[in-house]
Amino acid sequence: MADVIASPTTRRLALEKGVEIEDLAKRLGRQTIGPEDLGATAASAPASGASGADTSYWDVDHSQYGPVTAEPMSRFAQIAARNLAAAQSLIPAVTHHDRADVSAIEAFRKSLGSEARQRGVKLTALAFHVAALARCLRAFARFNASLSPDGDTLFLKEYVHIGIAVDTPHGLMVPVIRDADRKGLWQIAAEIGDLAARAQARKVGPDEMGGASMTITNLGGIGGTAFTPIVNPPEVAILGLTRTETVTVWDGDTPRPVPMVPLDLSYDHRVINGADAARFLARYSGLIADPRNMLI
């Protein structure tokens, strides 16, 4: 094993406890040792989380500090937690932040209010985001791709399927809108409403939740100004949306209030570079700012 990495404080504590740092590192299968590792015994290996990381120091009797209530994690939540932990540990992810002017979208949605009621469809801003993302995935092939587990092969997809993250009482679900690039706004809006309602009722089938090109996670109805969504493998990017805010834009010497939606694009840096991400969101912002480009 290579030289063990430990701070002077850790080495001093190890000396006081009579612990051989190198032997402990070999037992734990680690190269880095911290003060919290010095309580590990030779007879027991550390507990491991989904990513294989040492989580032995998490095993604490919390009741010694005050009253607690134990709440078992559901099977659904356990699977999601393992997948998220694995994704976070294996993917070198970066998040690029931008924002888009939604003035035109909001005006257009209002103008279609009567038709939406006649159709029985709720035309939300999310439908426009799905349409814009589908067009960007057609224009930027590396975003519509998946990397093989060994990292040696990039699979470029000829279809565009958009995952929609839905917050439900039983956990996060991600139903998928298939062939989103071939569908109009009304059909996309209808499918969003249908999938979200059935996700809440746990009536979305397994065949409706896999194979997304990329996922949108929308916190706009809750709040926040920015976040760093976790890439959902085998996808290589995910788009986060938060609440629209009014931003002052200067038109020469004249200030103008503009409603802007914050955009948070997390991406796998093994596949996508920062310049690619900036260009992707610039194109995306342009489509959102002028939705007529999505109706052609």
| The CATH architecture of the largest domain | 2-Layer Sandwich
Number of strands: 11
Structural class: alpha+beta
CATH classification, class level of the largest domain: Alpha Beta
Total of DSSP H or I helical runs spanning 4+ residues: 8
Q: Approximately how much beta-strand content do the residues carry? A: 15-25%
User: Biggest β-sheet, characterized?
Assistant: 7 strands, mixed
Poorly predicted ranges: 40-47
Radius of gyration: 24 Å
Number of domains: 2
CATH superfamily of the largest domain: Chloramphenicol acetyltransferase-like domain
Order of helix and strand elements from N to C terminus: HHHEHHHEEEEEEHEEEEH
Overall outline: elongated
Q: What is the fold named in CATH at topology level of the largest domain?
A: Chloramphenicol Acetyltransferase
Termini distance?
61 Å
Query: What share of the residues lie within helices?
Result: 25-40%
Mean pLDDT: 88
Characterise this structure:
With 296 residues, this protein is of the alpha+beta class. The chain folds into 2 domains: 8-71, no CATH class; 92-294, Chloramphenicol Acetyltransferase (2-Layer Sandwich), CATH 3.30.559.10. The protein has 8 helices and 11 strands. The chain has helices spanning 8-17, 21-28, 75-90, 103-111, 113-119, 125-139, 185-200, 274-289, and strands at residues 93-101, 145-147, 154-156, 162-164, 166-168, 171-173, 176-177, 214-218, 237-241, 245-251, 254-268. A hairpin with a 2-residue loop joins strand 5 and strand 6.
